[in-house]
């Protein structure tokens, strides 16, 4: 079934064709269409040079003209349109030193990583399959296009991509391909860390991640990954049957929970993660630790940002499978919370200073508010000025 995005993509291809240019769907979108999987981004390869593409369409964003790539906006969708190309040598293993644009799709497909990613499809749904990609899709095999050693030295990220695809699709890696991966694996160290993080994020979100992790172990490719290279025991401590984790913050929390010796901040720095991922990992770990001592309660759901509830539940499924799923309980508890934040407390710092007029300002103010907050959230005291004042009189703060 062609999605709306595909139908809009067909119109882009149709328009290029009507200007006498060849154009095809290529890469992951063709693979995923044939596998009946949800389609991510749609890539189009064309014989038209980037300048021509810019002339043909109204809305074109020149994201990587030097590599022949522009983004065409059509019907509110984005299409990465790339001119057929043959890459030159890769001195930095990331950007080819030169890109030669060619007029045929064959050469373009030849430079791609795996047979299952080297399929092209024209606007009538006719597939161009020069390397047995369809057969490999049927047989569930990941195999390089041509010589594996060459493909992996061109871009060693492809080694991790092979493992990522096995974890996403449940495919086995062809024997020669696997050998070539082992030959080139040391070069993974030279890759930009963000690129590795992107692929490993997709691996851990894969439905068959245990297969991918098995490959990481068997090939010892994990010895070339940030942090894991220095703590090789970590990978072996991973639970045997993991469930997919949909964000890298969850994955960091998983690793930190099984190996607390490595601080979260070290993961974040070594894997070049965003602040958002860092916050997510910290919140999830705090919640897991609290859960270990107290189980689920209102304080846990109050402290944990609700966007992380399902991630927390996924970690519970790993570490406390008998308690899974816990998200419904969390959602029920959050609806019953007496307050949503500190601001809702019936007493604030100014009130506290009125109660203790002699006391100087200091950390005691914040500490007292925090204690009140927890008592109220846990339902041990009612959130009224009177009861909070009474509680303070019975539990006078240490003024500091
Ligand atoms: N190191 C790489 C990265 C990409 N490609 C080619 O570029 C296509 C698009 O790359 P990308 O979007 O990164 O991967 P997809 O295969 O599309 O997977 P996803 O669904 O995750 O986007 C791939 O299918 C593959 O043909 C490649 O040959 N070598
Ligand atoms: Mg893609």
Question: How would you describe this structure to a colleague?
Answer:
The protein is α+β, with helices and mostly antiparallel strands and 400 residues long. It has four domains: 1-139, Beta Polymerase, domain 2, CATH 3.30.460; 145-225, Hydrophobic Seed Protein (Orthogonal Bundle); 240-337, Up-down Bundle (Methane Monooxygenase Hydroxylase, Chain G, domain 1); 343-394, Serum Albumin, Chain A, Domain 1 (Orthogonal Bundle), CATH 1.10.246. It contains 20 helices and eleven strands. A seven-stranded mixed β-sheet has the order 3-4-5-2-1-8-9. Strands 6-7 form a two-stranded antiparallel sheet. Strand 8 (120-121) and strand 9 form a beta hairpin. The site of magnesium ion has 4 residues, from loops. Cytidine-5'-triphosphate (CTP) is lined by residues 27-28, 40-41, 43, 112-113, 117-118, 155, 157-158, 202.
């Amino acid at each position: 079934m062609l999605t709306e995005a595909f139908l809009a993509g067909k119109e882009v291809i149709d328009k290029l064709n009507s200007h006498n240019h060849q154009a095809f769907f290529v890469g992951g979108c063709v693979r995923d269409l044939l596998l009946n999987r949800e389609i991510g981004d749609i890539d189009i390869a064309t014989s038209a040079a980037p300048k021509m593409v810019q002339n043909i369409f109204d809305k074109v964003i020149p994201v990587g003209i030097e590599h022949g790539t522009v983004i065409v906006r059509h019907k509110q969708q984005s299409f990465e349109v790339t001119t057929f190309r043959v890459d030159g040598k890769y001195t930095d293993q990331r950007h080819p030193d030169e890109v030669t644009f060619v007029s045929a799709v064959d050469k373009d497909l030849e430079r791609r990583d795996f047979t299952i990613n080297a399929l092209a499809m024209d606007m009538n749904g006719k597939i161009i399959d020069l390397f047995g990609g369809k057969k490999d899709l049927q047989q569930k095999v990941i195999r390089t296009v041509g010589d594996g050693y060459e493909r992996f030295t061109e871009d060693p990220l492809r080694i991790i991509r092979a493992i990522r695809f096995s974890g996403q699709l449940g495919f086995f890696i062809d024997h020669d391909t696997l050998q070539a991966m082992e030959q080139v694996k040391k070069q993974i160290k030279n890759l930009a860390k963000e690129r590795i993080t992107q692929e490993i994020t997709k691996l851990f979100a894969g439905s068959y991640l245990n297969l991918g992790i098995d490959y990481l172990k068997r090939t010892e490719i994990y010895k070339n990954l940030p942090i894991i290279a220095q703590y090789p025991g970590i990978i072996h401590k991973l639970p045997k049957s993991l469930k997919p984790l949909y964000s890298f913050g969850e994955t960091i929390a998983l690793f930190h929970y099984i190996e607390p010796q490595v601080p979260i901040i070290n993961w974040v720095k070594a894997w070049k993660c965003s602040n958002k991922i860092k916050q997510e990992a910290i919140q999830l770990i705090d919640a897991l630790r609290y859960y270990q001592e107290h189980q689920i309660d209102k304080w846990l759901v109050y402290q944990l940002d609700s966007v992380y509830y399902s991630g927390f539940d996924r970690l519970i499924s790993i570490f406390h499978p008998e308690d899974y799923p816990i998200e419904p309980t969390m959602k029920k508890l959050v609806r019953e919370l007496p307050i949503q934040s500190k601001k809702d407390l019936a007493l604030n710092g100014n009130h506290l200073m009125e109660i203790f007029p002699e006391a100087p300002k200091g950390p005691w103010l914040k500490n007292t508010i925090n204690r009140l907050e927890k008592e109220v959230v846990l339902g041990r005291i009612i959130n009224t000025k009177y009861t909070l004042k009474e509680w303070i009189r019975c539990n006078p703060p240490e003024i500091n």
